[in-house]
């Protein structure tokens, strides 16, 4: 296969969504009105995954600069076409350095080199195709999380509408719909030498081997 | 040299400032000079192969941090923006009808020229292509304490004018001693100096490149001093930095 066509990378800006699974929202809800947050978020809480995070299919994630463990962030990325319409979707691994505060922007936690695991290709379709999508997360072959998009706070059409209220998604942009936590509020983690696979029916998997700095 | 990216004669052109005009530097009109008023000014940035990283700083001037009732941060307070929020010189920025407090922020914008990773302060200037002026508008009505400042405040369509010029780094011998000024309808509302940044440009490049790669064309908007005021539809805002340029923007009702 031609390597130039087989290794998909986003053409535009990749946005992530925080707190979009009911499980995590409910765990947070008692603290949402406390300092420093003072109130539950009204608009979607977004962040940017910069281009240095793009880790094409087949490339390892290198843990460096003092990072020894990462949260696995299995998510669906909606791929945007003309007129801010969704033309496809991808599974993504939205890696992050574990962080418990959502007060300040997560640049140091989410924008490190290689911190967005990509699949080989995009699956065409429309948002209604994925309303009940289920993803599996496996670490070294063992299933460590099942993610069900029926657990979203904002459904895919609602999220797109609420984001579109203040910014227009451009052709090539990708909007990640959020990642779920485990029952205790943490996310499954990975460290050097782990092999992490995110899969779902109809989608190219995201398979990443984690390596430690030499 | 001062570089611009403009629309003129049905196409996008690259130009440089020459005797108070724009001299086109490439293509069929190469060498032709056109007046500033004859063109549409685009952000003065060449397209990038992948999404441009746009880093912005909050609270990077001691006086502005005080104005917003925060203690100065111990490390840079940074957030990321999407490139789609950028617009050029002399453009229109939309103000939603129902908001009470929308303000400009005059900022020195650094354009990366050479890939930067694990760069030390002493070498930071080698990685800069040049400088331009950004106006990083915020609508405080939408501020929420989640990944604050949140994107609804800071990543809105039309809310990041940038330009008019990309000025070569060689032409700005000391970017850490430039006067900044904003006028609203001709009245000075904001004035300061890049000398008052909490984290200066070399420190910022060392900090970001310690955990991420900065690529050519990436931007760092370095924060704003105090003197922010509400702006209304019809207001003309000029954000100016000594030696870099004067960026004009007009507020319109959304």
Report on the structure:
The complex is a heterodimer of chains A (214) and B (254). Chain A is an alpha+beta fold and 214 residues long. Chain A is built from 4 helices and 15 strands. Chain A starts with a helix and ends with a strand. By secondary structure, chain B is mainly beta. Chain B has 2 domains: 1-42, FAH (SH3 type barrels); 46-253, Fumarylacetoacetase-like, C-terminal domain (Fumarylacetoacetate hydrolase, domain 2). Helices cover 7% and strands 39% of the residues of chain B. Chain B has 3 helices and 19 strands. Chain B has helices at 62-67, 151-154, 201-209, and strands at residues 2-8, 11-18, 21-24, 33-34, 40-42, 54-58, 77-81, 86-87, 91-95, 102-103, 106-112, 128-135, 138-139, 160-168, 179-184, 187-193, 219-221, 236-241, 245-253. In chain B, strands 1, 2, 3, 4, 5, 6, 7, 8, 11, 12, 14 and 17 form a 12-stranded mixed beta sheet that branches. A 5-stranded mixed beta sheet of chain B has the order 9-19-18-15-16, with no helix packed on it. In chain B, strands 10-13 form a two-stranded antiparallel ribbon. In chain B, a hairpin with a 3-residue loop joins strand 18 (236-241) and strand 19. The longest helix of chain B is centred in the last third of the chain and has 9 residues, at 201-209. The model of chain B has no long low-confidence stretch (mean pLDDT 96). Classes of the chains: A alpha+beta (214), B mainly beta (254). Chain A binds chain B through residues 9-15, 18-19, 36-39, 41-48, 50-54, 65, 102-108, 111-113, 166-170, 173, and chain B through 48, 50-53, 55, 77-85, 117, 142, 144-152, 155-157, 210-215.
Topology, please?
The complex is a heterodimer of chains A (214) and B (254).
Chain A: H1 3-6, E1 14-18, H2 22-32, E2 45-49, E3 54-55, E4 61-63, E5 69-71, E6 74-80, E7 86-94, H3 107-110, E8 116-117, E9 123-124, E10 134-139, E11 142-148, H4 156-164, E12 174-176, E13 189-191, E14 195-199, E15 206-212
Parallel strand pairs in A: 1-12, 3-8, 4-15
Antiparallel strand pairs in A: 1-2, 5-13, 6-7, 6-12, 7-8, 7-9, 10-11, 10-14, 14-15
Chain B: E1 2-8, E2 11-18, E3 21-24, E4 33-34, E5 40-42, E6 54-58, H1 62-67, E7 77-81, E8 86-87, E9 91-95, E10 102-103, E11 106-112, E12 128-135, E13 138-139, H2 151-154, E14 160-168, E15 179-184, E16 187-193, H3 201-209, E17 219-221, E18 236-241, E19 245-253
Parallel strand pairs in B: 6-17, 8-14, 9-19
Antiparallel strand pairs in B: 1-2, 1-5, 1-14, 2-3, 3-4, 6-7, 10-13, 11-12, 11-17, 12-14, 15-16, 15-18, 18-19
């Amino acid at each position: 296969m031609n390597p130039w066509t087989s290794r998909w990378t986003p053409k535009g800006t990749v946005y992530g969504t925080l707190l979009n699974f009911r499980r995590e929202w409910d765990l947070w809800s008692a603290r949402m009105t406390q300092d420093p947050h003072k109130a539950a978020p009204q608009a979607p809480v977004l962040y940017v995954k910069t281009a240095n995070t793009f880790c094409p299919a087949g490339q390892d994630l290198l843990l460096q600069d003092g990072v020894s463990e990462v949260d696995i962030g299995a998510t669906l990325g909606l791929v945007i076409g003309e007129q801010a319409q969704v033309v496809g979707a991808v599974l993504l691994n939205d890696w992050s350095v574990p962080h418990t505060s959502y007060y300040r922007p997560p640049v140091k936690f989410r924008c490190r080199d290689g911190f967005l695991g990509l699949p080989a290709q995009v699956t065409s379709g429309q948002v209604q195709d994925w309303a009940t999508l289920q993803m599996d997360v496996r670490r070294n072959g063992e299933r460590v999380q099942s993610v069900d998009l029926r657990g979203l706070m904002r459904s895919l059409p609602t999220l797109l509408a609420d984001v579109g209220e203040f910014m227009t998604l451009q052709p090539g942009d990708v909007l990640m719909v959020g990642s779920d936590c485990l029952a205790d509020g943490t996310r499954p983690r990975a460290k050097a030498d782990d092999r992490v696979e995110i899969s779902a029916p109809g989608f190219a998997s995201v398979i990443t081997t984690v390596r430690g700095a030499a | 040299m001062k570089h611009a990216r403009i629309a003129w004669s049905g196409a996008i052109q690259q130009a440089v400032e020459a005797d108070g005009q724009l001299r086109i530097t490439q293509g069929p009109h190469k060498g032709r000079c056109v007046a500033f008023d004859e063109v549409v000014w685009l952000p003065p940035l060449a397209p990038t192969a992948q999404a441009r990283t746009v880093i912005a700083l909050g609270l990077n001037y001691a006086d502005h941090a005080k104005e917003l009732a925060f203690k100065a941060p111990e490390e840079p307070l940074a957030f990321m923006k999407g490139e789609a929020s950028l617009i050029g010189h002399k453009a229109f920025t939309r103000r939603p009808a129902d908001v009470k407090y929308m303000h400009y922020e005059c900022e020195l914008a650094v354009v990366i020229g050479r890939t930067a990773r694990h760069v030390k302060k002493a070498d930071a200037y080698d990685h800069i292509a040049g400088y331009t002026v950004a106006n990083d508008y915020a609508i405080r009505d939408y501020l929420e304490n989640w990944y604050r400042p949140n994107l609804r405040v800071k990543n809105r369509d039309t809310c990041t004018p940038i330009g008019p010029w990309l000025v070569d780094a060689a032409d700005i011998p000391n970017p850490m001693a430039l006067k900044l000024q904003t006028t609203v309808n001709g009245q000075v509302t904001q004035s300061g100096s890049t000398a008052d940044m909490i984290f200066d440009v070399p420190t910022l490049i060392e900090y970001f490149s310690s955990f991420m790669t900065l690529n050519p064309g990436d931007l760092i908007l370095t924060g704003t001093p105090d003197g922010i005021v509400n702006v209304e539809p019809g207001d003309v805002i000029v954000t100016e930095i000594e030696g870099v340029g004067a960026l004009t923007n007009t507020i319109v009702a959304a």
